[in-house]
Automatic annotation (TrEMBL):
Annotated site residue numbers, Lowers pKa of active site Tyr: K80
MF (Gene Ontology): oxidoreductase activity, acting on the CH-OH group of donors, NAD or NADP as acceptor
Stated name of the protein: 2,5-diketo-D-gluconate reductase A
Domain of life of the native organism: Bacteria
Binding site for substrate: H113
Similarity section: Belongs to the aldo/keto reductase family.
Positions annotated as active site in the UniProt record: Y55
NADP-dependent oxidoreductase domain ranges (all copies): 28-263
Length: 277
């Protein structure tokens, strides 16, 4: 068996917890593959697994965590409440259902998956997450796909800030203003779709940087995320790709590289704008 890679460094969260900077994102990983790939990820060196009720693979992720060859406290497991369950009581029920599927005693991070402003239930959802944290059922709480004004509202109405804001973020959509907003408030920005679902990898500029550093274009983009200070959760569909994605901590991009990647910004999204979802 190939040697494991040294796990990603951990970044501090505002509540005192520590989050591995690079994890395995399980969006669009079929349930039939999720346990196998999660086990492989842990064996390779991953310590951060990101799932969600909507992904329909929580049970398989939990199976891999329970059978992991490392102590549970070394693993960081995140899940999310789906937008259909936004609301106070419905979120508490959704959390119970997620924990039953995962088969775990506690969760490291629980997120509101989408604010869905049109239904105006995300503040009540946030109140439910605060309660779950107060009860010790989840270590850290955060949000996903929140614009700055969504974050401002939940903080204004509850006095509690999220420690993570997970958003679509890649070279086409670097989210500089939102990253600055989060940083000013001690919120870690976490990138989903960090490779723009693979579409950004056909860019000649990234091919050139890959040649310069002797790396793959995907590794160049993931290293860019790390240089920005993002938490990043790339998906992978094979152990080989899992290994490639994690093997990004022994090189660095220089200022010219970062300036070149900045020219790729177009504002294009691969998913929906949270304002209109």
């Amino acid at each position: 068996m190939p040697q494991p890679i040294t796990p990603a460094p951990r970044l501090s969260l505002a509540d005192g917890a520590m989050i591995p900077q690079l994890g395995f994102g399980l969006y669009k990983v079929p349930a039939a593959d999720a346990a196998r790939l999660s086990r492989a990820a842990i064996e390779i060196g991953y310590r951060h697994l990101d799932t969600a009720a909507f992904y329909a693979n929580e049970a398989e992720v939990g199976e891999a965590v329970r059978g992991a060859p490392v102590p549970r406290e070394e693993l960081f497991v995140a899940s999310k409440v789906w937008k259909d369950d936004n609301g106070f009581d419905s979120t508490l029920r959704a959390f119970d259902a997620s924990m039953s599927r995962l088969g775990l005693d506690s969760l490291d991070l629980y997120l509101i998956h989408w604010p869905v402003p049109s239904t105006d239930r995300y503040v009540d959802t946030w109140r439910a997450l605060i309660r779950l944290q107060d009860e010790g059922r989840v270590r850290s709480i955060g949000v996903a796909n929140f614009h700055a004004h969504h974050v401002e509202r939940i903080v204004a109405e509850t006095g509690v800030a999220p420690v993570v804001n997970q958003v679509e973020l890649h070279p086409w959509l670097p989210q500089a203003e939102l990253r600055a907003f989060d940083a000013e408030r001690g919120i870690r920005t976490e990138a989903w779709s960090p490779l723009a679902r693979g579409r950004v990898l056909g860019t000649p500029l990234l091919d050139d940087l890959a040649d310069k550093h002797g790396r793959s274009p995907a590794q160049i983009v993931l290293r860019w995320h790390l240089e920005l200070g993002n938490v990043v959760i790339p998906k992978a569909s094979s152990p080989e790709r899992l290994r490639e994605n994690l093997d990004v901590f022994d090189f660095a991009l220089d200022a010219d590289d970062l300036a070149a990647i900045a020219t790729l910004e177009t504002g294009e999204r691969t998913g929906r704008d949270p304002e209109f979802d």
